[in-house]
């Protein structure tokens, strides 16, 4: 049972890491700074800090698992507990701090882009359009708006984060895999 919890916690941390890397890439975009007059630097700083902490804790936990694969060494139990606690704390911070700030930023950028749409879209930078269609400025804006609406209804935090990243990626012309 404890092993299942540990594996689940590690999988969640790996998902957080992937999502944080995508968000960091989007926040580092020069086009973001052209579209958004606000300061996304604080959010990016928090994303990078969390990314480093989660990656470090995951690596330390992986090393601990190699040293004690059967989890029988009582001297390592406290260290394992602290690492799992750090990862669980990061999951909570991700859900209640990073994602709401990212959602707010994404909504602002999508709305600003609707009010002041670009003259054209760079189809090379966008993911493939829906079958039989072509990317237009309006199609990009509508699709990004749909992603934001889907994110608001998403039950799983990773689904919400990924959908927001896809919306922002469309506006910025940065494909999110």
Helix amount: over 70%
Distance between the termini: 33 Å
Low-confidence stretches: none
Number of strands: 0
What does this structure look like?
This protein has 177 residues and is mainly alpha-helical. The chain has one domain. The protein is 74% helix and 0% strand. It has helices at 2-27, 30-35, 41-67, 77-115, 137-153, 157-172. α3 packs antiparallel against α4 and α4 crosses α6 (157-172). The longest helix is centred in the middle third of the chain and has 39 residues, at 77-115. The relative contact order is 0.14. The mean pLDDT is 93.
What key attributes describe this structure?
177 residues; mainly alpha; elongated
Summarize the structure.
The protein is mostly helical and 177 residues long. It contains 6 helices and no strands.
What is the element layout, followed by pairings?
Blueprint: H1 2-27, H2 30-35, H3 41-67, H4 77-115, H5 137-153, H6 157-172
Helix pairs in contact: 1-3, 1-4, 1-6, 3-4, 4-5, 4-6, 5-6
């Amino acid at each position: 049972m404890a092993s299942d919890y540990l594996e689940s916690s590690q999988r969640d941390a790996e998902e957080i890491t992937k999502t944080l890397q995508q968000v960091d890439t989007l926040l580092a975009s020069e086009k973001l700074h052209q579209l958004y007059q606000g300061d996304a630097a604080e959010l990016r700083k928090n994303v990078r800090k969390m990314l480093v902490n989660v990656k470090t804790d995951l690596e330390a936990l992986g090393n601990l698992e190699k040293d004690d694969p059967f989890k029988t060494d009582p001297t390592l139990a406290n260290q394992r507990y602290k690492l799992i606690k750090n990862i669980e704390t990061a999951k909570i911070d991700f859900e209640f701090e990073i994602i709401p700030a990212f959602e707010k930023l994404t909504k602002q950028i999508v709305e600003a882009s609707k009010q002041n749409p670009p003259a054209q879209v760079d189809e090379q930078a966008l993911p493939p359009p829906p079958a039989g269609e072509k990317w237009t400025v309006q199609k990009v804006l509508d699709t990004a708006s749909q992603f934001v609406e889907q994110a608001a209804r998403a039950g799983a935090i990773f689904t919400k984060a990924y959908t927001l990243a896809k919306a922002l990626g469309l506006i910025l012309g940065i494909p999110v895999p």
